[in-house]
Design brief:
alpha+beta; 6 helices; 33% helix; globular; single chain; six-stranded mixed β-sheet
């Protein structure tokens, strides 16, 4: 039996004989749902082009009162094993959003995306868009793994599916304002 832990999602168990299913489940580390790419100017736009995920997360927290930085990842503890690696991101954070109901995430890890979201910063916009496209392609076949994704320059903001669409749009507005 193979057990795959998906970035704070759920433990999915599949037999080794179902290798293709297990491989698809492993891909959930980058699960997603809806997206938006846009351009903008101003302070948040400058935040979107910031060099680190910490900078972007702090800027989001200034615009959305319910956001709290939870964790800044290192190459050693990155759940996706993409930080600093080829075709990966250059920095990553996890944040919580107090509007996510505790009952919805009680079974998930403290830094799971579903508790609020994450910020991933890439070397360029193409890297961020490629990651978002991958996440969305996985989620098309696994709707329960959906999330909201917003790209601004080299920044990908991933937002919990447990927030309402209107709440998630606040992240898009903050990123682009």
């Amino acid at each position: 039996m193979t057990i795959v832990m998906l970035e704070g999602f759920v433990i999915i168990r599949r037999t080794v004989a179902a290798a293709s299913v297990a491989l698809a489940a492993f891909s959930l580390a980058a699960c997603s749902g809806s997206s938006s790419t846009s351009t903008g100017t101003g302070a948040a736009a400058e935040s979107a082009s910031a060099k680190t995920a910490d900078d972007v997360t702090k800027a989001l927290g200034e615009k959305i009162a319910s956001v709290k930085l939870f964790k800044t990842y290192t190459a050693e503890d990155d759940p996706n094993h993409l930080l600093g690696r080829p075709n990966g991101y250059t920095s990553k954070t996890a944040f919580s959003d107090s509007r996510v109901k505790a009952s919805e995430v009680e079974y998930l890890g403290a830094d799971s995306l579903e508790r609020g979201g994450s910020v991933e910063v890439f070397a360029d916009e193409a890297g961020a868009k490629k990651r978002m496209d991958f996440i969305q392609s996985v989620a098309k076949n696994l709707p329960a793994a959906g999330e909201y994704d917003y790209v601004k320059g080299a920044v990908l903001v991933r937002v919990s599916r447990f927030l309402t669409p209107d709440q998630a749009k606040e992240y898009e507005a903050a990123l682009n304002s």
